[in-house]
Design a protein that fits this description.
This protein is α+β, with helices and mostly antiparallel strands. The protein has 9 helices and 25 strands. A 7-stranded parallel sheet has the order 7-8-6-9-10-11-12, with helices on both faces. Strands 1, 2, 3, 4 and 5 form a 5-stranded antiparallel sheet that branches. A hairpin with a 3-residue loop joins strand 13 and strand 14.
Length: about 600
């Protein structure tokens, strides 16, 4: 049989261990008479277009079948039989996708302080389970370094002339929404210099140029979206987080409400609308990807459940893990956290994050979840280079499926009803770049997202004291919008919208239990929050029910700290996000 090469434009991906068949065929015909005319007639008869002779092979033609998808996992045997039954056809073969990677040598970075970047390549600096690095180097060895991906650093500006950042700076996608010009550099104040954005930028895209260290996606581009300063407004945030969403693929933000355990705050109405529109329409319809640090208020008993940016379904909430694989002292925990990345741990131990700093310098002292969010954004940039067609929801699905368990002895780990391991401190675990990129290459696009809203008839329920043994949760049954266009069979995010009046806001706690028995702490007690304002249509979000079937009885339990606190549950809604059919899973190979 003659070997025929066919040029393909791949639109969808299937699991790596399964064959992919295209809508292109090679057909060899007998050589008597006007063979090309016969080929045209044959193609039209069977619903093909004849794209011409294959190379220099006489009698071999390239057919395309427009009535089928560009690629599919099942060969079209009926069409094959019909073609082969034609008298003038010698053979016909549907073309199969074959991987043909470049064989150019990959030169790994040799920046002088790369050895200090233990989270990229751990050579013994960090000890403990599991791997204690993000498995970045094996991804680089496949020639994936972030090319073609733009990451927006939404912060206080970037020192774009920095020798480690200049060549990757995307000036065309940068803007200063404080000064309202395109010069989105930080301000150099002797008392409070604006260095935060520059430090975050280096984690993503510090160049491989033998200066300092290197970014995880060192060939990606970084845009400076300068919004952070005193006097922040909803208008400024909305502008910054929706700027050039067809040019900027990923926005990363390492800021939010004050981390003192007292605030209940999040994006304003303009910012919410802007982020939702970007997720639905950005990146040419694939959706802008938002990465958000979960916060550093652990010392103050704060929780990211009270951070409306992290509780937004359109953001990827990222927490921190120490060099020993544990949850650090500053980390906040909540059911909204999706994944974790490495950052600083022990205050007295020099195991922070190496990155760029103001005045062309380099620092090894970047810390907290401020370092974790850009680290996650950089790994997502590698995923997008591997598969630019990923939607914002595809990215979340892949991270859920490929994260590694860290601190396996931590008592908070549970296995949900869909078989996923998850934790309020770490989300689904620490990002494994090699696994994430591997699944990104072969990911089949997620089914359409549906949202089913459950509105129980609950009004002004007196909230009991949590120490009482006879506390009964409020039970709500749902068929998950069965037989409608919003029917859900596999969950993604679940949002509990609560209205609660109370004399001490931090005294109230809320848990949610799914029909499959998985309990999420939606709102923990916060001892510093003495506000009397309560919760008005506040969105509490959990990722812990990912993949579960939502049909059945849900249980909501709301409690307060003691009898002296006055508290009532005015009402709540349950917003179920997911898909009618489960996304296709792939077998992962380490």
């Amino acid at each position: 049989m003659t070997s025929v090469a066919v040029l393909l434009s791949l639109v969808f991906y299937e699991c790596a261990h399964s064959a992919l068949y295209t809508n292109h065929w090679a057909v060899e015909m007998h050589g008597s008479g006007d063979v090309e005319a016969a080929a045209n007639e044959l193609a039209a008869k069977h619903g093909f277009r004849n794209l011409g002779k294959v190379g220099n092979l006489d009698g071999v033609y390239w057919f395309q079948h427009d009535g089928t998808r560009t690629t599919r996992s099942i060969p079209q045997s009926t069409i094959a039989d019909s073609l082969k039954a034609e008298e003038q056809v010698i053979w016909a073969e549907q073309q199969e996708v074959r991987e043909r990677p470049h064989r150019n040598a990959v030169l790994l970075p040799s920046d002088p302080r790369l050895r200090e970047q233990w989270y990229i390549k751990n050579t013994g600096q960090a000890r403990g389970p599991p791997r204690l690095d993000h498995n970045i180097v094996p991804v680089w060895e496949t020639n994936l370094t972030g090319r073609g991906v733009v990451v927006g650093i939404v912060d206080d500006g970037i020192e774009y002339r920095h020798p480690d950042l200049a060549e990757n700076y995307a000036a065309h996608a940068s803007y200063d929404f404080i000064e309202n010009d395109r010069d989105a550099k930080p301000r150099y104040d002797t008392t409070t210099p604006q260095r935060h954005g520059t430090r975050c930028a280096g984690i993503v895209a510090a160049a491989a140029n033998n200066i300092c260290g290197v970014g995880i996606a060192y060939n990606s581009r970084i845009a400076s979206i300068r919004v952070l300063s005193k006097g922040m407004t909803d208008l400024r945030e909305a502008n910054g987080l929706s700027y050039q969403t067809d040019n900027i693929d990923i926005f990363t933000a390492s800021w939010g409400p004050v981390d003192k355990g007292e605030a209940l705050d999040g994006p304003g109405p303009l910012t919410k609308r802007a982020m939702r529109k970007a997720a639905e329409q950005g990146r040419g319809g694939k959706g802008t990807i938002y990465v958000w640090a979960t916060g550093n208020g652990g010392l103050y008993d704060d929780s990211c459940a009270c951070d409306g940016y992290v509780s937004n379904i359109y953001t990827i909430g990222v927490s921190s893990v120490t060099d020993r694989g544990a949850s650090p002292w500053y980390a906040e925990w909540c059911a909204s956290t999706l994944v974790s990345t490495y950052s600083s741990g022990n205050k007295l131990k020099n195991m922070a994050v190496l990155t760029t700093d103001l005045n062309g310098k380099c620092t090894s002292q970047h810390t907290g979840t401020s370092a974790s969010a850009p680290m996650a954004a950089a790994i997502i940039a590698l995923m997008l280079e591997a598969n630019p067609r990923l939607t914002w929801r595809d990215v979340q699905h892949i991270l859920v499926r490929t994260a590694d368990i860290t601190s396996p002895d931590d008592s908070d780990w549970i296995t949900n009803g869909a078989g996923f391991r998850v934790n309020h401190k770490f989300g689904f675990g620490i990002i494994n770049a090699l696994k994430a990129v591997g699944l990104a290459r072969t990911w089949w696009p997620s089914p359409r997202q549906a949202v089913c809203i459950v509105q129980p008839h609950i009004h002004n329920v007196v909230i009991p004291v949590r120490t009482r043994r006879d506390i009964q949760p409020i039970s709500v049954y749902t068929d998950a919008c069965k037989d409608t266009d919003q029917a859900i069979g596999a969950l993604e995010h679940v949002v509990l919208v609560v209205t609660i009046t109370t004399s001490v806001r931090g005294s109230v706690a809320v848990t949610l239990t799914s029909p499959q028995g998985t309990t999420s702490t939606m709102l923990p007690r916060r001892r510093r929050d003495r506000s009397t304002h309560g919760f008005r249509h506040w969105q509490l979000m959990t990722t812990h029910l990912w993949g579960e079937n939502p049909v059945g009885e849900w249980k909501v339990k709301v409690t307060k700290l003691n009898e002296s606190v006055q508290a009532r549950l005015v009402g709540f809604e349950l917003h179920l996000y997911g898909t009618e059919a489960k996304p296709r899973d792939c077998t992962l190979h380490d």
